[in-house]
Amino acid sequence: MQLIKYIFVLNFLFGTHYYIGDIMSIEDQNKEFDICYGHYPNETFKFSDFNGNLNGGNYKVIMVRMNAVWWGPCYSSIEVFDEIIVEWQDHPNVGFVNEVNDFNQPYSCEQWGDAGIEGIPFILNGDASYSYPVSTAPVFDMLNYCGGYTSYAFLDHTMTVRYKDSAFSLFGANSIIESLLEEYYLSDPSGDMDNDGFPNESDNCVEISNPYQEDLDGDGFGDLCDECNTFLGNINNDTIIDILDVVGLVNVVLLSENIFDFSMCEFDNADTNFDGIINILDIINVINYILGDREYNRQCEINLEWLIKPYFLGEGEQI
């Protein structure tokens, strides 16, 4: 263990280390790292693979994780890192890098990879012998947090190091990724990220192509990007009010004390009479709507109009 500490010190002294605010050099971006596990289109990985200036225009914000197999917290946090990857793996502008060092103490590369979700993330072999100034653990050398494991780093689309820490929760990582993505979109307001014909600055769903800009509840977020279409009585958020919503609303009423069992969308759409209370009266309203009660439907349309109309009024106009 003492020897490993000396190696950390030597790596820190003689390698290229990046602090928050530093931009990774082109030389370091083009270094190739061996992959020992997981799915990746090439046999080696380069940070330039995620740099739009060097790969033909595909920019990514990057979350980097650096591990040693002998350190318990590295192993115990595999599940959380896998959850973060699953959340973002289909996003064209998000990338993940995972370097693991000191294999067979006690885990092999394959064993480490299979400890989480099979096939993800791809693992960079930190034990491979490189010709760089630091022969092993080169990613750790460049981006570690305070010289220890587990280390995390976030890079934005310009390859600038923005955040570092020894741990990140699913919520914390998601918040940082969303923030960096928003910066990326705003950096090119006239661009069209999703190629749907609407520039980023006016597109109501920047990340997903929606050429018709559908926005059921008029909240400025396109339906494909909106986690909650505020449509009263539509408890399951499928834009159709039916018996499934009655069942869902009954569950909300019966289990409303267990708030963590439901989303804010379910609670928002359950208060059909806008009285701030979810109870039997809301259930009756939804049933009446399904049965075609004209008075309720008229009132529902009025409520929905009051909810949506402010988004379409100019300054100083009144409903």
Provide structural commentary.
With 319 residues, this protein is an alpha/beta fold. The protein has 2 domains: 2-186, Glutaredoxin (3-Layer(aba) Sandwich); 227-312, Dockerin domain (Type 1 dockerin domain). The chain is 35% helix and 11% strand. It has 12 helices and 7 strands. Helix 9 runs antiparallel to helix 11. The longest helix is centred in the middle third of the chain and has 17 residues, at 170-186. Mean pLDDT is 84; it is low at 1-14 and 304-319.
* Shape-level CATH architecture of the largest domain: 3-Layer(aba) Sandwich
Structural class: alpha/beta
Distance between the termini: 71 Å
Major β-sheet strand ordering: 2-1-5-4-3-6-7
- Would you state the CATH class of the largest domain? Alpha Beta
Q: What is the tally of beta strands?
A: 7
Largest sheet: 7 strands, mixed
What's the arrangement of secondary structure elements?
Elements: H1 2-14, H2 26-29, E1 33-37, E2 44-45, H3 52-55, E3 61-68, H4 72-76, H5 78-88, E4 94-101, H6 109-114, E5 123-125, H7 138-143, E6 151-155, E7 161-165, H8 170-186, H9 243-254, H10 264-270, H11 280-291, H12 294-308
Short synopsis of the structure:
The protein is of the alpha/beta class. Helix content is about 35%, strand content about 10%.
Could you list some keywords that capture this structure?
single chain, 319 residues, alpha/beta, Glutaredoxin, Type 1 dockerin domain, 2 domains, seven-stranded mixed β-sheet, 12 helices, 11% strand, disordered N terminus, disordered C terminus
